[in-house]
C-alpha cells in the first residue's frame, strides 16, 4: 500500500516539474479578459482627456474672438443701392406675373445678315497633302459631310 509519505513525494515531484514547464494552453480566458479590459480603460481615459482639452481649447477660442478686435465691414453704398434696385425690380416683375399682369413683350430689332461672296480660288492640294501627312484614312465623302 502507498503511504502518505509516498503520495506527498509524488506531489512535490509533479509540482516542481509543472513550475519549470510552461503552460501550453492556447487560451487563457482570465489573462485575455484582463488585457482587453485594461486596454479599453486606457482608450477611454485617453479619449476623455483629449475631449476635455479640445473642449477647453474651443471654449477659450470663443472668448478670444469676443475679446479681439472686430473688423468693420465697409459697404459701397452705390453698388449696394444698384443691387437693391435690381432686386426690387425683379420682385415687382414677379409680383405682376403672379397677379396675372404680364408686361408687353419686348421684341428685339431684326438683325440683317449680309452674305458676302468671294471669287477667291482655294488651293485644295495643300489640304490634301496635310491630310495625307496625318495618315488619316478618310474619304472625300466624309470630309464633305463634316464640312456641311
List strands and helices in order, with pairings:
Elements: H1 4-20, H2 29-67, H3 77-99, H4 124-133, H5 140-147
Low-confidence segments, given as residue ranges, are 141-148
> What is the strand tally?
0
**Which range does the strand content fall in?**
under 5%
Radius of gyration: 47 Å
Terminal Cα separation, in Å?
Answer: 120 Å
Largest sheet, strands/sense/barrel: none
Give me the strand/helix succession. Answer: HHHHH
Task: Count the DSSP helices.
Answer: 5
Label the structural class: mainly alpha
- Write down the overall geometry: elongated
- Give the proportion of residues in helices: 55-70%
Mean pLDDT across every amino acid position: 75
Can you tell me about this structure?
With 148 residues, the chain is mainly alpha-helical. The chain is 66% helix and 0% strand. The protein has helices at 4-20, 29-67, 77-99, 124-133, 140-147. The chain is elongated. The termini are far apart. Mean pLDDT is 75; it is low at 141-148.
Task: Report a brief summary of the structure.
It is built from five helices and no strands. It is mainly α.
Question: What are the key terms here?
Answer:
mainly alpha; elongated; 0% strand; 148 residues
